[in-house]
Amino acid sequence: MAGIVTFGSVDTALRAGYHVYDRTNDGILVRKETPFGFALAVVWLRNAIETQRWSGGRP
């Protein structure tokens, strides 16, 4: 069984065909529709600028 896909930035996930699904304390969940359902992945947010960009400015 494969592990979960991780990305270092939301832009990279979007370029890979994923869409923003939900926000967590440490990052963003993204998903991509496949013939078998949805594939989930995690984007770990590492810097304050990217965190503010995807959180709507919320801390």
Task: Please tell me about this protein's structure.
There is one protein chain. 24% of the residues lie in helices and 41% in strands. With 59 residues, the chain is α+β, with helices and mostly antiparallel strands. The protein has one domain (5-50). It is globular and about 35 Å long.
Q: In angstroms, what separates the terminal alpha carbons? A: 35 Å
How many discrete domains? 1
The count of β-strands is: 4
In percent, how much strand structure appears in the residues? 35-45%
Tally the helices: what do you get?
Answer: 2
Largest sheet: 4 strands, mixed
Order of helices and strands: EHEEEH
Radius of gyration using CA atoms only = 12 Å
Q: Which strands sit side by side, in order, in the main sheet? A: 1-4-3-2
The unreliable regions are none
Helix content: 10-25%
Task: Give the gist of this structure.
By secondary structure, the chain is an alpha+beta fold.
Features:
24% helix, alpha+beta, 4 strands, single chain, 2 helices, 59 residues, 4-stranded mixed β-sheet
Give the helix/strand layout.
Blueprint lengths: L4 E3 L2 H6 L3 E5 L3 E8 L2 E8 L3 H8 L4
Parallel strand pairs: 1-4
Antiparallel strand pairs: 2-3, 3-4
